[in-house]
TrEMBL record:
Keyword Transmembrane helix: yes
Pfam families, A to Z: DUF4349 (PF14257)
Keywords: Coiled coil, Membrane, Transmembrane, Transmembrane helix
Region of interest (Disordered), residue spans: 43-66
Top-level taxonomic group: Bacteria
Source organism per UniProt: Chryseobacterium angstadtii
Residues of the DUF4349 domain: 79-286
Designated name of the protein: DUF4349 domain-containing protein
Lineage: Bacteria, Pseudomonadati, Bacteroidota, Flavobacteriia, Flavobacteriales
Amino acid composition bias (Basic and acidic residues), ranges on this chain: 52-62
Coiled-coil blocks: 187-221
Transmembrane segments annotated in the record for this chain: 261-285
């Protein structure tokens, strides 16, 4: 029995050791789920980068682009449009015109439009002058001092900085949208989407052209001021040559009387169909009168 007991004890000890080793191996199997859990946690963190990558394609990113545009407000210089009108009385139109040409050349200005009118009372030369913004005041002073007697002068300034800034910001945003729609057009999968995107692109391009044209117009008006200059010369009238004297008025009265008579005569002639009825009426009246006399005889 003792010989059998010892082997049994040894077998039991070995079995207990194997069970203990199995229990010790269990934690190793528990650790692996934690690793899996940690791996799953890492996977859960990956979607945010994907969502960030999608944001530039969404409409929410468009206002973010606009945030860059306020920097342009500080870079835009003040935009002021200056305009003026002057009327100057001169002794000689030709001499004054030569003086004006010299002043324009000195101030790098030019004549945009010229109109001359010669009447019985006076001569008028109207000029539309464009002059660089920085030389506008010097040009006005030159005309006031050396050309003639200033009859009237009106100078105005219009600050268009706010309008220019607003148009510039909208133009920048439209260009951003245009590039995004062009990217969408390259990635369009259906014909319907392509047609709709192309129509939107066409509208944006038209709006961009209008905005750029408006900015060019404002820049032109700001860089070159406009002056409407009128040169006026009153003609000298004498009793011998004046056309408003008695002789001229008498001749005009005779002419007007003759014209009135011709008009009256032509008006009567225009009633010629009614004049043909007068002989007919007279003939009928005589016949009626003759018929009344016959019973008396």
């Amino acid at each position: 029995m003792r010989n059998l007991f010892l082997p049994l004890c040894i077998v039991l000890l070995l079995n207990s050791c194997e069970k203990s080793e199995m229990k010790l191996d269990i934690p190793s199997t528990v650790v692996s789920p934690e690793k899996v859990a940690s791996a799953e946690y890492v996977v859960e963190e990956t979607p945010p980068p994907q969502e960030v990558s999608k944001e530039p394609l969404s409409d929410e990113n468009k206002p973010a682009q606009v945030s860059v545009s306020p920097k342009k407000i500080d870079t835009i210089a003040k935009k002021v449009i200056k305009n003026g009108t002057m009327k100057i009385q001169v002794g000689d139109i030709k001499k004054a015109q030569n003086q004006v040409a010299g002043i324009l050349k000195k101030n790098n200005a030019y004549i945009q439009n010229e109109q001359f009118q010669n009447t019985d009372m006076d001569d008028n030369l109207d000029l539309v002058i464009r002059v660089p913004h920085k030389n506008f005041d010097a040009l006005i002073n030159s005309f006031s001092d050396g050309v003639g007697s200033v009859l009237s002068k009106n100078i105005s300034s219009d600050d268009v900085t706010e309008e220019y800034t607003d148009v510039s910001i909208k133009l920048a945003n439209k260009k951003i949208y245009l590039e995004k729609y062009r990217d969408m057009l390259r990635n369009a999968s259906t014909t319907k989407d392509m047609i709709e995107i192309q129509e939107t692109i066409r509208e944006l391009e038209d709006e961009i052209d209008v905005a750029e044209g408006r900015l060019r117009f404002i820049d032109d008006r700001v860089n070159y001021s406009t002056l409407n200059l009128g040169l006026y010369k009153e003609k000298v009238r004498s009793s011998a040559t004046s056309k408003i004297g008695f002789g001229s008025r008498f001749a005009d009265s005779v002419t007007e009387g003759w014209n009135s008579f011709v008009t009256f005569l032509l008006g009567i002639i225009s009633f010629w169909p009614f004049l043909l009825l007068i002989p007919l009426i007279i003939l009928m009246w005589r016949k009626l009168k003759a018929c009344k006399k016959k019973p008396q005889q």
